[in-house]
Amino acid sequence: MLHLDRLILTQGDFRLLADWSAPAGARIAVMGPSGAGKSTLLAAIAGFLAPSAGRILWNGQDLAGVAPGDRPTTILFQDQNLFPHLTVAQNLGLGLRPDLRLTDADRSRIDRALERTGLSGLGPRRPAQLSGGQASRAALARALLRARPILMLDEPFAALGPALRAEMLALVREVADETGALVLMVTHDPADALALGGKTAFIADGTVHPPVDTGRLLADPPAAVAAYLGRRQDPGTFLLHGE
Amino acid sequence: MTAAGRWTVTLLPAGLALGLLLLVLAPLATVAVRGSGMGLGPADWAAIRFTVLQAVLSALLSTVLAVPVARALARRRFPGRGLMITLMGAPFLLPAVVAALGLLAVFGGAGMLNMGLQSVGLPPVSIYGLHGVLLAHVFLNLPLATRMILQGWLSIPAERIRLAQSLGFGPAQTFRHLEVPMLREVLPGVALVILVICLTSFAVVLILGGGPRATTIELAIYQAVRFDFDLARAAGLAGVQVLICALATGLAFLVAAPAGFGTGLDRQAALEAPRGWRRGLDAAVLVLATLFLVASLVAVALRGLPGLTDLPSAVLPAAGRSIAVALVSALVTTATALTLALSAARRPAPLVEAAATLPLATSGLVLGTGLFLIVRPFVSPMQVALPVTVLVNVALTVPFLYRILLPEARALAADYGRLADSLGLHGWPRLRWLILPRLARPLGFGAGIAAALSMGDLGVITLFAGERQATLPLVVQQLTGAYRIEAAASASLILVVLSFALFWAFDAGGRRAAP
Q1: pTM of the model
Q2: Does the pLDDT of residue B261 top 50, yes or no?
Q3: CATH number, domain with residue B271
Q4: Which residue from B421, B434, B438 is facing A69, i.e. has the nearest CB?
Q5: Which of A:203-222 have CB within 8 Å of B?
Q6: Range of the domain at A103
Q7: Number of structural domains chain A divides into
Q8: A242 touches A190 (CB < 8 A)
Q9: What's the pLDDT score for residue B402?
Q10: What is the largest CA-CA distance in chain A?
Q11: Closest to A31 in 3D by CA, of A139, A223, A192
Q12: A77 inside domain
């Protein structure tokens, strides 16, 4: 279980509060206006930003002082998820062994992960030779190999077109199913939140609100969410569109 | 964080920074103790006056003369322009002792100029003294100034150039409204950088200066140690030198000089190239500058080539020593600068910043005097001549490399730091799989600079070396001092070829290793 225990994050004048928990395997979209602190929340859980108060706990263990690489997390950034000077296979290998001393068993696991994500045979390529969608798939393949219990995605598919995005979201769900990971995905798009399935944690006025069922949230949005969605009334039309 | 992680991230940079500070501060403290209370005699005051005078004049001349050259390069496109800009970077790596010898070969007693004057019945001119020193300093620093000022020209925003063109500015208005404001911003920094370089210039003054009227502080320190064995006086002079250098360096930092080397030369300049007589003027400026820079090197080559088959016996062993010194210096300097830069890129590091800045306020002879005083009670200075040379080279070159590597290390941390952290990439794997491949290019370039500077350096070695510790630049200087110009030219040729070969090997290696 991920527990944000009276967590307070500060960056300059900016303050963000969170006090809730989510069970293993949950799917949570993180939504909110630009600058609300969506990425800040993920950065704190990933270990790039120390809380100024409160705790982040995983299964009861306080993550304070745990280095990012040793946390139970995998994070996909908006871009730069692959090292351009390493091959795709090496980039995946880093998920298994950071020193890249790979065994034959490791290599066949990498091949299987490539296959699983539709990248068969692309292992020897450099990231520059991949399309945007393929690069996202490679990053997800590495998440599959790392199999950490928390998978965080910071708008990783923002640069992809709608069809590709839908494909990627399906893949995220498959990866999460396979690894049993709790998913935290930052997105701007309510359609993405719906497609992820599960809950949505909305951020407004310096607070990350506890996750609530996405369908219900969009059907009957509180004022702040409605303002964000640009909708005062008639949520039904949106849902039709979103489905 | 693991123990190994803490070691590489915190302790190693701090230890290196402290070591570097100690390497600079211990000699300075020794100099201060030994030199305190020493009264300055009239000869010392003359040396101080001459040091400042030649440095100020060298800086002014180099800067002023570089303006038309930079402008011609900025607004003209011609075949070989790129090559010329690249070659402008070369004198920075050219051993100063070779530059002095080259000027001697052109302007010296038996040089081309005086031969010409003689043949038409005119009296010969002497290159020794203030004007010789100025000539050599302009020769060495004009290209550096040109490159820095060219950066200024290329940094004029394209929008402003387009605005000027749409308003129908002629060359005069362009100069007044675009170029003068840029020059006013850039020139003080350029002049100060060259001033700092010339304050500590030693090899040039050793060969072309001397005597009561053309002795700098560096030269006076050398003479006090080597000839008078008056160590207290050397220490006192070193103290004065540090004060002057610290003042000039501080001033240069305040003015924030632009970088001398770097990118941006490829941008399509939108500057209009005026036609008419200005075209001829630009061409003449470029031809004259090229002639000035190339003639003396050609003269060294012409006089040195025949003697290559009959080298003095001291040359080859000295070349071997120089290569060893250069390789060790390059390795240690690059590793140190990389460690410091990575640490400073991670978080603000005042200790690291201080360690990478303080050496700029010293000079080879100042550090040399201090180290001489420190080691002399324990060992014969001759025995440690080469290790001390390496140490001083490292201390004086780390600031350059640190400043080359820091922006690259910052970009690396911004682009891939979090990704590497999230994957648990630490210690050796991080170096092997992330840092070395991503920074191969600047590391190769920096190591090349360190190797070439160390190869050509003639400074601290003059205080320590005997016959059997001489490096190649010292042999060149000794042959020149003995008026064996042909042999000196041959040794110089070898020195120049080795310096540039080392630079090229490291630089090309880095470029090849880069992804």
Answers
A1: 0.84
A2: no
A3: 1.10.3720.10
A4: B421
A5: none
A6: 84-147
A7: 2
A8: yes
A9: 94
A10: 59
A11: A192
A12: no
